[in-house]
Amino acid sequence: MLTLAEQHRTGAEGGAVEVISDIDAVRHRFRQLQESARRQVRAMMVPEQTVVSRSDNVAEGAGVRRGVLYRTILHREALTEPGALAQALGALEAGQQVRVADAVPVKLMIADHELAMLPLFSGRNIAAASVLVHVGGLLDALVAYFELAWEQAYPLSPHTTGDGVAEQRADAIDAFDARMPALVLAGLTDQAVGARLGVSRRTVQRRIGELMTRAGVESRIQLGRHAARRGLV
Question: For 175-229, which CATH class?
Answer without folding.
Answer: mainly alpha
